[in-house]
Amino acid sequence: MFAFFKQFPEIIAVLSEKKDGSMRLLPKREDWLSENIENRKQYFEKVGLDGKKVIAAHLVHGNHVAIVDHDSPDYILETDGLVTIDPAVALAITVADCYPVYFYDEKKKMMGLTHIGWSGAVKNIVADTLGLMKKEGSDPLGIAVTLGPGICQKHYLIPPERAVLFENYPEAILKKEGQLFLDIKKIIYRQLKENGIVMISDSGECTSCLSEKYFSYRRDKPEKIEAMVAVIGLVS
User: Fold this and answer.
1) Is residue 195 part of a domain?
2) What ranges in the chain are assigned the alpha helix state H?
3) Cα 108 from chain centroid?
4) Which of 29, 33, 164, 234 is the most buried (most CB within 10 A)?
């Protein structure tokens, strides 16, 4: 189990692994509480968040970020990022190559969790997440950010029409043997720095490289998508 923010003992920030089972929330509302709900429940108990209300984002690969509290629904529709200052709440998203990005303001005890793939990078959901945190009183200099495992550049082949969307990030595109490869992590780092974040770290792990540890949509191309869950919450 990869744990983040070890410098902040009051925070639980983790990502599940293959051995924990699939954590994917299925697309239709009536399916959400079906086959993976027990995996999620067991995992939240395992990491010490069973006493929290875990609020999950229903991902649409956009840039909408919601602020939530204990009165919010368990699932937030059409949202790829969550922010809270409620200590009774933990935040969750699912990933299977996209990056889980964890935010923590120690002074405000404010937490954020954002799902970032190529679409979230194009739409700069980083700026939207930090904009909401700043609106709630956070200073970017006091926000620590860490990136969980995601797909690395050497495994992320993209078509030319998608590469055009990143013309403002030429450093993130690698051309090799006539093919184009995207470095999402590099884009996230740049966007964080452009928004005033100085405390940045990452896991150094690639979901596609570590086939025994993580699900990877691009590597496996499964008929039925499986995913990990990223979660962040304050220790009770």
Assistant:
1) yes
2) 37-46, 118-122, 125-135, 160-163, 184-194, 217-220
3) 21
4) 234
Alpha-carbon torsion, ordered 144, 47, 68, 78, to 10 deg: 100
Specify whether the CB–CB gap between 67 and 83 falls below 8 A. Answer: yes
CATH (domain of 227): 3.60.140.10
Q: Is residue 177 part of a domain?
A: no
d(CA 86, CA 136): 12
pTM: predicted TM-score of the whole model, two decimal places: 0.95
221 occurs within a structural domain: yes
Whether 160 maps to a domain, the answer reads no
Measuring CA to CA, how many Å separate 184 from each of 19, 57, 92, 174, 215? 26, 21, 21, 12, 18
For 160-189, what is each residue's pLDDT tens digit?
999 999 999 999 999 999 999 999 999 999
Q: Take residue 127 and report the two structure tokens written for it.
A: 């700026």
Domain count, the chain: 1
Residue numbers of the domain that contains 103: 2-151+185-234
Residue spans of the chain under pLDDT 50: none
- Helix, strand, or coil (residue 151): coil
Looking at the DSSP assignment, which residues form a beta bridge with residue 176?
179
- Residue 104, helix vs strand vs coil: strand
